[in-house]
Amino acid sequence: MKLKKRYLYSIIEMIVVIVVTICVFKFVVIPVRIDGTSMENTLHDQSIALINGIGIKAENIKRFDIIVLYSEALDEKIIKRVIGLPGDTIEFKDDVLYVNNQVTPQDFLDMNFVNESKITYNVERFTDDFKVVVGEGEYFVMGDNRLRSTDSRELGTFTIDDIIGMKGLVIFPFDSVQWLE
């Protein structure tokens, strides 16, 4: 009888551990595999990151945060950088970002990568010129590799409900471990 109880408790413990683990990796710490080059030279294809899935509120999202969102048009999770916040006017002119008519430096971009990309793809601009007004409750996102990113320029803006997680830690490959802000 004692042996049966011990086995029953062990099975219950395993089930609880499995359920808790699934919940943690579904809602709290979301594992994401970077698929593609849209976030080069910040994130690399096939890297693995653990993304924070809690605290997703409008007041917590800042310009240039890296976020994971669900794209209905692509039917997949994508990882991008927030460029425009609700109500912003975003304009790119001659590779310069203007937010609400103010020049806004993009210090996260690796200028060597930008210049090499322009040479590789034989283009004059890393980011084509455009202007967009971001609606209330919407976010305009772009990949860091502007020449190879499907983002808000094609997909449109996203809402807070589309955001799955933000910030986190790249854990693989080991030589690329870094915090994502």
TrEMBL record:
<keyword id="KW-0472">Membrane</keyword>
<keyword id="KW-1133">Transmembrane helix</keyword>
<protein>
    <recommendedName>
        <fullName>Signal peptidase I</fullName>
        <ecNumber>3.4.21.89</ecNumber>
    </recommendedName>
</protein>
<dbReference type="InterPro" id="IPR000223">
    <property type="entry name" value="Pept_S26A_signal_pept_1"/>
</dbReference>
<comment type="similarity">
    <text>Belongs to the peptidase S26 family.</text>
</comment>
<feature type="transmembrane region" description="Helical">
    <location>
        <begin position="7"/>
        <end position="29"/>
    </location>
</feature>
<dbReference type="InterPro" id="IPR036286">
    <property type="entry name" value="LexA/Signal_pep-like_sf"/>
</dbReference>
<dbReference type="GO" id="GO:0006465">
    <property type="term" value="P:signal peptide processing"/>
</dbReference>
<dbReference type="InterPro" id="IPR019533">
    <property type="entry name" value="Peptidase_S26"/>
</dbReference>
<dbReference type="GO" id="GO:0005886">
    <property type="term" value="C:plasma membrane"/>
</dbReference>
<dbReference type="Pfam" id="PF10502">
    <property type="entry name" value="Peptidase_S26"/>
</dbReference>
<dbReference type="GO" id="GO:0009003">
    <property type="term" value="F:signal peptidase activity"/>
</dbReference>
<dbReference type="InterPro" id="IPR019758">
    <property type="entry name" value="Pept_S26A_signal_pept_1_CS"/>
</dbReference>
<feature type="active site">
    <location>
        <position position="38"/>
    </location>
</feature>
<feature type="active site">
    <location>
        <position position="80"/>
    </location>
</feature>
<dbReference type="InterPro" id="IPR019757">
    <property type="entry name" value="Pept_S26A_signal_pept_1_Lys-AS"/>
</dbReference>
<keyword id="KW-0378">Hydrolase</keyword>
<dbReference type="GO" id="GO:0004252">
    <property type="term" value="F:serine-type endopeptidase activity"/>
</dbReference>
<feature type="domain" description="Peptidase S26">
    <location>
        <begin position="13"/>
        <end position="169"/>
    </location>
</feature>
<keyword id="KW-0645">Protease</keyword>
<keyword id="KW-0812">Transmembrane</keyword>
